[in-house]
Amino acid sequence: MGILGLAVFKVVLQLIVTWLETSFTFGEALVVAQTLSLLFLDAVLSSVTKLNVSWMPMNLVVQRSEMNVFMHALLFGMLMIGIVLTPLLRGISRARGKEDQRPFILLSLAFFASTALIVLFVIAPWTALCLDANPFVWTWNFVVEPGFRRLFIAGFWASVIALGVTVAYQKFPATTDSTSLNMKRKYFHILATLMFIPGYIWDPDFMHLAFSVALSALILLEYIRHFHVWPLGSHVEEFLQQFLDRRDCGPVILSHLYLLVGCALPVWLNRIPQQLFLGGLSGMLTLGIGDTMASICGKRFGRIKWPGSLKSVEGTVAFVTSVIFICGILSATGAISPIGPAKWIRLSGCVALSSLLEAVSDQNDNLVIPLYTFALLHLTLA
């Protein structure tokens, strides 16, 4: 399995740096390639375990939760759709500029129909094999089983998204100066905080599944945007263009994907036997609270710059104090377990180290900081 894992990693990394070189830094490409290769091996082991293969060593037999099965199915299923339907998507892109729009519309409809067929006849059967149940029936029962709680959470998320996107679409200025752009991007960090922290506290399992669904939906939207699939492609492109900065210079727009992945990865990784509830919140706290406050306060009050960086000491202080303050509120209200004096010191050290990484790293904060913070918290608090 080690050889297979290394081979998958090298293939994925080569594909990223060859096809999407301008969208990823090499550090980001390494993180993405490692994540995808590990999840792929986990999915293979989970599948082989369900097939009851006799030659499978017992130490490789794994039983994964339903949440992990859906994460594998949704993520790799959506990536497979992009790979399999690449010729069709390129045909859509070529047909877009022609005077006769009928081929463009028909090819776009063919893309949606093909996507539905792959979901129904490839992804769903594999999910059923690993789940030992019909995935659509299981999902319905999972959502409605506890009564109205999960329906309420889903309605809450939908309301925040609808209101937030409407405000962004109608009220944000068209200017792209650095201050305005920074405020617009951090606006979505705040929306993520409003949705994800309550969702994770109320129902971690539902949050785990929702992250998987949301990531697959954003990947699908990126296909639609990049290839201008009718009728949504141009609208998605127009909406996202107002939030782009210098890091979104490649063919793939990654900042919004990284924000979601940065919040989701700690939740997904926290599904280990010795769970640390605060570890699952590390992405939401560092991105939704710390990074947002560091950026806003640094832009407004920052005077002292870190050596070799455009980030300010004032922004770093805002990062640390805001995260510690929110952790204190969560602890005082019982949302997380009470934190004793010794753990407060270790927690403060973890947050301080994360804030320093935010100040000096040239990688995408949304991807790197949550993983770094998650590792620190498990090393010091678990």
Automatic annotation (TrEMBL):
BP GO annotations: dolichyl monophosphate biosynthetic process
EC number, UniProt record: 2.7.1.108
Transport found in the keyword field: no
Protein localization: Endoplasmic reticulum membrane
Key word Zinc-finger present: no
Main location: endoplasmic reticulum
Entry's Gene Ontology molecular function annotations: dolichol kinase activity
Alphabetically ordered keywords of this record: Endoplasmic reticulum, Kinase, Membrane, Transferase, Transmembrane, Transmembrane helix
Cellular component, GO annotation: endoplasmic reticulum membrane
Bilayer-crossing regions: 69-92, 104-128, 148-167, 187-202, 249-269, 275-296, 317-339
InterPro entries: Polypren_kinase (IPR032974)
Segment forming the signal sequence: none
Membrane topology category: Multi-pass membrane protein
PANTHER family: DOLICHOL KINASE (PTHR13205:SF15), TRANSMEMBRANE PROTEIN 15-RELATED (PTHR13205)
Assigned protein family: Belongs to the polyprenol kinase family.
Name assigned to this protein: dolichol kinase
Organism: Powellomyces hirtus
